Protein backbone atom coordinates (compact mmCIF):
# COMPACT_ATOMS: atom_id res chain seq x y z
CA UNK A 1 0.00 0.00 0.00
CA UNK A 2 1.42 3.39 -0.98
CA UNK A 3 1.84 5.87 1.82
CA UNK A 4 1.13 9.48 0.94
CA UNK A 5 1.97 12.56 2.93
CA UNK A 6 -0.57 15.32 2.40
CA UNK A 7 0.53 18.79 3.48
CA UNK A 8 -2.51 21.04 3.30
CA UNK A 9 -3.75 23.71 5.71
CA UNK A 10 -7.40 23.89 4.58
CA UNK A 11 -9.13 21.35 6.74
CA UNK A 12 -12.07 20.61 4.43
CA UNK A 13 -9.83 20.17 1.41
CA UNK A 14 -7.50 17.91 3.36
CA UNK A 15 -10.35 15.73 4.61
CA UNK A 16 -11.77 15.42 1.10
CA UNK A 17 -8.45 14.39 -0.42
CA UNK A 18 -7.69 11.99 2.43
CA UNK A 19 -11.07 10.23 2.16
CA UNK A 20 -10.83 9.94 -1.62
CA UNK A 21 -7.31 8.54 -1.55
CA UNK A 22 -8.09 6.08 1.23
CA UNK A 23 -11.09 4.88 -0.72
CA UNK A 24 -8.72 4.12 -3.60
CA UNK A 25 -6.38 2.08 -1.45
CA UNK A 26 -3.79 4.64 -0.44
CA UNK A 27 -2.61 5.29 3.08
CA UNK A 28 -2.65 9.00 3.87
CA UNK A 29 -1.04 11.03 6.62
CA UNK A 30 -2.17 14.62 6.89
CA UNK A 31 -0.03 17.51 8.06
CA UNK A 32 -1.64 20.92 8.39
CA UNK A 33 1.66 22.78 7.98
CA UNK A 34 5.07 22.32 6.37
CA UNK A 35 6.64 22.17 9.81
CA UNK A 36 4.45 19.24 10.87
CA UNK A 37 5.01 17.61 7.49
CA UNK A 38 8.74 17.83 7.99
CA UNK A 39 8.46 15.96 11.29
CA UNK A 40 6.40 13.20 9.65
CA UNK A 41 8.92 12.89 6.81
CA UNK A 42 11.67 12.31 9.28
CA UNK A 43 9.86 9.59 11.18
CA UNK A 44 7.90 7.69 8.54
CA UNK A 45 8.48 6.38 5.02
CA UNK A 46 6.33 7.93 2.33
CA UNK A 47 6.01 7.19 -1.37
CA UNK A 48 4.81 10.63 -2.43
CA UNK A 49 4.12 14.09 -1.04
CA UNK A 50 1.07 16.15 -1.98
CA UNK A 51 2.13 19.65 -1.12
CA UNK A 52 -0.12 22.68 -1.03
CA UNK A 53 1.62 25.84 -2.23
CA UNK A 54 -0.07 28.37 0.03
CA UNK A 55 0.64 27.36 3.60
CA UNK A 56 0.94 29.36 6.80
CA UNK A 57 4.54 29.56 7.94
CA UNK A 58 6.83 27.93 5.44
CA UNK A 59 5.12 27.80 2.04
CA UNK A 60 5.05 24.95 -0.45
CA UNK A 61 8.02 26.18 -2.45
CA UNK A 62 10.22 26.49 0.59
CA UNK A 63 9.03 23.11 1.79
CA UNK A 64 9.83 21.50 -1.54
CA UNK A 65 13.30 23.02 -1.49
CA UNK A 66 13.79 21.72 2.05
CA UNK A 67 12.63 18.21 1.11
CA UNK A 68 15.29 18.09 -1.62
CA UNK A 69 17.95 19.73 0.54
CA UNK A 70 17.41 17.04 3.14
CA UNK A 71 17.96 14.41 0.51
CA UNK A 72 14.42 12.98 0.29
CA UNK A 73 14.00 11.88 -3.31
CA UNK A 74 10.33 10.90 -3.25
CA UNK A 75 8.01 12.54 -5.79
CA UNK A 76 6.45 15.86 -4.81
CA UNK A 77 3.16 16.91 -6.38
CA UNK A 78 2.24 20.54 -5.75
CA UNK A 79 -1.38 21.54 -5.18
CA UNK A 80 -2.12 25.01 -6.45
CA UNK A 81 -5.23 27.15 -6.63
CA UNK A 82 -6.23 28.54 -10.00
CA UNK A 83 -6.12 32.06 -8.57
CA UNK A 84 -2.55 31.69 -7.40
CA UNK A 85 0.18 32.99 -9.64
CA UNK A 86 2.25 29.91 -9.81
CA UNK A 87 5.59 29.89 -11.45
CA UNK A 88 5.77 26.32 -12.65
CA UNK A 89 9.29 26.71 -13.94
CA UNK A 90 10.50 27.81 -10.51
CA UNK A 91 8.60 24.90 -8.98
CA UNK A 92 10.21 22.38 -11.25
CA UNK A 93 13.62 23.91 -10.65
CA UNK A 94 13.27 23.49 -6.90
CA UNK A 95 12.42 19.85 -7.35
CA UNK A 96 8.65 19.48 -7.66
CA UNK A 97 7.63 16.69 -10.00
CA UNK A 98 4.15 17.72 -10.96
CA UNK A 99 1.34 20.21 -10.37
CA UNK A 100 -2.36 19.79 -9.87
CA UNK A 101 -4.57 22.85 -10.00
CA UNK A 102 -7.47 23.13 -7.59
CA UNK A 103 -10.28 22.38 -8.01
CA UNK A 104 -9.45 18.95 -9.39
CA UNK A 105 -11.52 15.82 -9.69
CA UNK A 106 -10.73 12.75 -7.62
CA UNK A 107 -10.19 10.87 -10.86
CA UNK A 108 -7.60 13.35 -12.03
CA UNK A 109 -5.82 13.31 -8.70
CA UNK A 110 -5.65 9.53 -8.53
CA UNK A 111 -4.51 9.27 -12.14
CA UNK A 112 -1.69 11.78 -11.58
CA UNK A 113 -0.57 10.07 -8.38
CA UNK A 114 -0.59 6.64 -10.00
CA UNK A 115 1.33 7.92 -13.02
CA UNK A 116 3.91 9.50 -10.74
CA UNK A 117 4.29 6.38 -8.61
CA UNK A 118 4.62 4.23 -11.72
CA UNK A 119 7.32 6.48 -13.10
CA UNK A 120 9.31 6.56 -9.88
CA UNK A 121 8.97 2.87 -9.17
CA UNK A 122 10.47 2.25 -12.60
CA UNK A 123 13.43 4.40 -11.61
CA UNK A 124 13.99 2.22 -8.57
CA UNK A 125 16.00 -0.30 -10.49
CA UNK A 126 16.64 -3.81 -9.36
CA UNK A 127 20.33 -4.64 -9.72
CA UNK A 128 21.22 -7.08 -12.48
CA UNK A 129 22.31 -9.67 -9.99
CA UNK A 130 19.89 -9.91 -7.09
CA UNK A 131 20.17 -12.29 -4.15
CA UNK A 132 17.88 -13.33 -1.31
CA UNK A 133 18.36 -16.26 1.03
CA UNK A 134 19.86 -19.12 -0.94
CA UNK A 135 18.62 -17.71 -4.26
CA UNK A 136 20.61 -15.68 -6.76
CA UNK A 137 19.08 -14.18 -9.91
CA UNK A 138 20.95 -12.85 -12.90
CA UNK A 139 18.34 -10.66 -14.61
CA UNK A 140 20.50 -9.97 -17.68
CA UNK A 141 21.18 -13.62 -18.39
CA UNK A 142 17.69 -14.59 -17.09
CA UNK A 143 19.23 -17.28 -14.93
CA UNK A 144 18.30 -18.40 -11.43
CA UNK A 145 20.49 -20.26 -8.96
CA UNK A 146 19.64 -21.94 -5.66
CA UNK A 147 22.68 -22.63 -3.50
CA UNK A 148 24.74 -21.84 -6.63
CA UNK A 149 23.02 -24.61 -8.60
CA UNK A 150 21.12 -23.48 -11.70
CA UNK A 151 17.33 -23.78 -11.42
CA UNK A 152 15.14 -23.70 -14.51
CA UNK A 153 12.24 -21.21 -14.54
CA UNK A 154 9.95 -20.85 -17.55
CA UNK A 155 9.85 -17.46 -19.26
CA UNK A 156 6.53 -16.64 -17.63
CA UNK A 157 7.69 -17.70 -14.19
CA UNK A 158 10.80 -15.59 -14.57
CA UNK A 159 8.77 -12.54 -15.65
CA UNK A 160 6.35 -12.89 -12.73
CA UNK A 161 9.23 -13.21 -10.30
CA UNK A 162 10.87 -10.09 -11.74
CA UNK A 163 7.60 -8.16 -11.50
CA UNK A 164 7.22 -9.09 -7.84
CA UNK A 165 10.83 -8.23 -7.05
CA UNK A 166 10.75 -4.90 -8.94
CA UNK A 167 7.64 -3.82 -7.03
CA UNK A 168 8.76 -5.10 -3.65
CA UNK A 169 7.54 -4.78 -0.95
CA UNK A 170 4.19 -3.81 -2.47
CA UNK A 171 1.38 -6.27 -2.96
CA UNK A 172 0.71 -6.85 -6.65
CA UNK A 173 -2.80 -7.85 -7.57
CA UNK A 174 -3.54 -10.86 -9.75
CA UNK A 175 -5.10 -8.52 -12.31
CA UNK A 176 -1.97 -6.44 -12.50
CA UNK A 177 0.14 -9.55 -12.98
CA UNK A 178 -2.23 -10.71 -15.71
CA UNK A 179 -2.05 -7.37 -17.48
CA UNK A 180 1.71 -7.01 -17.17
CA UNK A 181 2.60 -10.56 -18.18
CA UNK A 182 -0.16 -11.60 -20.56
CA UNK A 183 -1.26 -8.16 -21.72
CA UNK A 184 -4.70 -6.75 -22.29
CA UNK A 185 -5.36 -8.77 -25.40
CA UNK A 186 -5.51 -12.10 -23.66
CA UNK A 187 -7.54 -12.72 -20.53
CA UNK A 188 -6.76 -16.01 -18.93
CA UNK A 189 -8.40 -16.96 -15.66
CA UNK A 190 -6.60 -15.30 -12.77
CA UNK A 191 -6.00 -18.76 -11.31
CA UNK A 192 -3.28 -19.12 -13.93
CA UNK A 193 -1.31 -16.61 -11.86
CA UNK A 194 -1.71 -18.79 -8.77
CA UNK A 195 -0.47 -21.82 -10.68
CA UNK A 196 2.65 -20.03 -11.83
CA UNK A 197 3.36 -18.62 -8.38
CA UNK A 198 2.97 -22.12 -6.97
CA UNK A 199 5.55 -23.38 -9.46
CA UNK A 200 7.97 -20.57 -8.65
CA UNK A 201 7.63 -21.39 -4.95
CA UNK A 202 8.30 -25.06 -5.57
CA UNK A 203 11.51 -24.12 -7.33
CA UNK A 204 12.77 -21.40 -4.98
CA UNK A 205 11.23 -21.69 -1.54
CA UNK A 206 12.73 -24.02 1.07
CA UNK A 207 9.20 -24.87 2.19
CA UNK A 208 6.75 -24.02 -0.63
CA UNK A 209 3.80 -24.62 1.73
CA UNK A 210 4.88 -21.83 4.04
CA UNK A 211 6.68 -19.48 1.67
CA UNK A 212 9.27 -17.11 2.97
CA UNK A 213 9.76 -14.91 -0.11
CA UNK A 214 6.55 -14.80 -2.10
CA UNK A 215 3.66 -14.17 0.26
CA UNK A 216 0.00 -14.49 -0.59
CA UNK A 217 -2.39 -11.68 0.23
CA UNK A 218 -5.70 -13.45 0.18
CA UNK A 219 -8.20 -12.03 -2.25
CA UNK A 220 -5.64 -9.56 -3.60
CA UNK A 221 -2.42 -10.98 -4.92
CA UNK A 222 1.20 -11.52 -4.02
CA UNK A 223 4.10 -9.72 -2.45
CA UNK A 224 7.86 -10.32 -2.53
CA UNK A 225 9.57 -10.01 0.85
CA UNK A 226 13.12 -11.23 0.22
CA1 LIG B 1 -3.48 26.49 1.44
Describe the structure.
- By secondary structure, the protein is of the alpha/beta class.
- It folds into 2 domains: 3-121, 3-Layer(aba) Sandwich (Rossmann fold); 129-224, Arc Repressor Mutant, subunit A (Orthogonal Bundle), CATH 1.10.10.
- It is 41% helix and 23% strand.
- The chain is built from 8 helices and 12 strands.
- The protein has helices spanning 11-23, 34-43, 60-69, 88-93, 106-123, 155-166, 174-182, 191-204; strands at residues 3-7, 27-31, 48-52, 76-81, 98-102, 129-132, 135-138, 143-146, 149-151, 171-173, 214-217, 221-224.
- The strands form 3 sheets. The protein has a 5-stranded parallel beta sheet, sandwiched between helices. A 4-stranded antiparallel beta sheet has the order 6-7-8-9, with no helix packed on it. It has a 3-stranded antiparallel beta sheet with strand order 10-12-11.
- β8 and β9 form a beta hairpin.
- α6 crosses α8 (191-204).
- The longest helix is centred in the middle third of the chain and has 18 residues, at 106-123.
- The protein starts with a strand and ends with a strand.
- The mean pLDDT is 88.
- Bound molecules: calcium ion.
- Residues 9-10, 52, 54-55 line the site of calcium ion.
